[in-house]
Amino acid sequence: MEYTHITPRPLITVDEEACGNAILCLKCVKACLEAGPNVIGFMNSEPPPVGENAPQRLEDIPHKIIFSGMVNCNGCGKCIEACPKGALTLQMPEPQVPAARVQHADIVFCGTLRDGTKVFPRD
Ligand code: SF4
Ligand code: SF4
Q: What's the whole-model pTM score?
């Protein structure tokens, strides 16, 4: 029997210069929300000035895209397609084949398989 598992999760990088002020767009945020995972958010790039120079509109505060909960990213690429500026890059991880597939029934006693293989050898 052969199987693969994916680890770690997809990696998405943002070209912040190409994106500009994310609050003026947020198409990637909407795309990921509609796709289901909802792992893209946004926050102000730096603390906004206070006092007389305080911005009056949210759009006047520089924002950047942030990713949280990437463990839920499924690599669908919807955010990449939605970005009008080509600011996002998706990198999928290489599939990794585990060294051994172990089933509980195969374990005779802690750390050893029926055929004597040490799963957790202690040197
Ligand atoms: S690839 Fe899909 S799940 Fe991952 S951040 Fe983009 S839209 Fe969301
Ligand atoms: S879709 Fe692209 S340009 Fe728009 S906020 Fe997201 S990264 Fe920035």
A: 0.73
Ligand 2 pocket at CB < 6 A: 14, 19, 22, 25-28, 65, 82-83, 85, 87-88
Answer yes or no: is 123 within a domain: no
Domain contains 3: no
CATH code, 27: 3.30.70
Residue holding tokens 């210069």? Answer: 17
Which atom of ligand 1 approaches the CA of 36 most closely?
A: 3
Residue 64 has phi, psi (to 5 degrees) of: -130, 160
Structure tokens at 118: 């040490």
Question: Which residues line the pocket of ligand 1, CB cutoff 6 A?
Answer: 10, 12, 31-32, 35, 37, 39-40, 73-79, 90
Tell me, yes or no, whether 17 lies in a domain: yes
For residue range 53-88, list pLDDT tens digits in order.
Answer: 888 898 999 999 999 888 889 999 999 999 999 999
Domain holding 75, by residue range, is 11-95
Nearest ligand to the C-alpha of residue 68?
1
Q: Is 114 domain-assigned? A: no
